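Limitations
The structure tokens in this dataset are predictions for the assembled complex, not deposited experimental models. Users should treat interface geometry with appropriate caution, especially where small molecules or nucleic acid strands are included. An illustrative entry is reproduced here so readers can see what is and is not provided.
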Amino acid sequence: MPPIYAAIDLGGTKVTCALASADGAILAERSIPTASQDGPDAVLARIAALAADLSRETGATPQAAGMGVPGLVDRAKGATLFLPNLVTQWRGVEVARILGAHLGCPIYLLNDVRIATLGEMTFGHGSKTGTMVFFAIGTGIGGGVVIDGRLRLGELGAAGELGHQTILPDGPLCGCGNHGCLEALASGPAIAAEGARLLHSGMAPKLYELAQGRIGAVTPTLMAAAAEAGDEAVRDVLVRAATYIGIGAANMVTALHPDLVVLGGGVSTIGPLLLDTVRETVLRRVRMFPVDHVAIRNSALSDKAGLYGGVALAMRAGEL
Amino acid sequence: MPPIYAAIDLGGTKVTCALASADGAILAERSIPTASQDGPDAVLARIAALAADLSRETGATPQAAGMGVPGLVDRAKGATLFLPNLVTQWRGVEVARILGAHLGCPIYLLNDVRIATLGEMTFGHGSKTGTMVFFAIGTGIGGGVVIDGRLRLGELGAAGELGHQTILPDGPLCGCGNHGCLEALASGPAIAAEGARLLHSGMAPKLYELAQGRIGAVTPTLMAAAAEAGDEAVRDVLVRAATYIGIGAANMVTALHPDLVVLGGGVSTIGPLLLDTVRETVLRRVRMFPVDHVAIRNSALSDKAGLYGGVALAMRAGEL
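Predicted assembly:
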């Protein structure tokens, strides 16, 4: 039987676990609530039980597991350093040791967005290119950088925080403490907040209709539909956010001259307006060398880039 | 006799040539005017004669030469692609072939700021670190990126144009055609222009005195002296420019988590105000991971980084 790998994607709300073969074929996949208020030991025990269930159902035993976590890790120790969105923040939890004892295989940890970048470079658009910049645009904006086929990590696995480039020096306060970060200007919540501002203004009748007047129903996806249906003010908000993302992408293209820029995360899939605007902005902003051959694409793996990255990490941890 | 290498630094105004040993000891060095209006053949013949003079005087024959040029090159062909500041712009000049025939050794070409980065990584502060970001701040702002000991070039040797990050999306027009580039905000001419604005305003009495009222005499160095002597408005200009450089540095630290950021070029040596402000800005802007251990220093090679880079390129071209 060919080798099987486990992928674990630990989020603030849910944990997803999958078993896959080395070519990226997923044999089984399931999610459970994280419920981090129970503490790290309980969460890890549930993850172990979930992986055991998948193993039993498929008859496949993983050789190794790759796990993405929302925060900083000590890769050498296989321990979490700081997961800001989980209860207790998981400082110094020896995940590889604890989970490894349950699963009976090596466990490798990586930041969730770096692992998604690894997924895209292994099983997605990046598999044919040497140098790639990856933006994950969702509740926050994360990223990752691949140089000559190697994921740039830095000693904390923290390199690639592309959502925390300063785009507007005097811009709004970001969750990280800086002002004017790309994340503060163009993440899902930043875009939706602008939609909420417009909802009762009379400038967004289609959005009002689609959201049935409820501010809580406004999402970037709904806003894209409203813009498509004719709400110029909503379209303006989306173009502005996409232009900021384009500036962030242009800065990385200027610095690194990659072959490929990939947009992933939930916000990246709202429609062609976002991708087109990012492309136009990169062409307009990068003038020092020709960039028409730098491909700018949506992720080939959509919301599964993190899971595929777990498989890649399990397979390739030693090469990182 | 240990091997000897030639370094050639081709600028818009002057050409400098040096002979050096593999440990970076310079045996001889001399500059002549570029006089690019004579055309590439004449300029290259003069460079060859200069190198021959140095060889004869030292009794040393170079094994290879590394040459920095102000623009884009085709490294594989050893040809210039576009040198915007030289008369005729040197499109497709086969410098390695022409100069190699004169000198009787291989000639390697690289963009002038990438070659300075190579100098700093080989003979300067970068020699002990794996990942370095280099800003060359002078008439323009150039840069270079070293990842895990390898200079990032991209196919045109154009990666590392850190002066063309967008810092203010609606900022002033840059020479490259983009708006709000770091270069348009914090290069020597950008700083001096702000000094010139203040000169007759009554807000810069010390600068007025030092420049003897002549706008043409205002330089960033003179402005640093005026700020030191008490001109608060001049100090404000320098702090603002340094803050922009700090934002550019912070963006690169956030993206790449280097061990080291180096500031080179003439403007980098105007005094501690610049370096201190860049340091403070990086600490204030990068909040996603601890950066107090990221060293931020002035170039160890000062205005010779390009020449040392030529020596390094002659020695190491095959490894790039």
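Some entries come with short summary sentences. For this one: The interface with chain A takes residues 72, 131, 143, 145, 147-148, 150, 152-156, 158-162, 164-169, 174, 176-178, 243-244, 247, 250-252, 254-258, 284-289 of chain B (CB under 8 Å).
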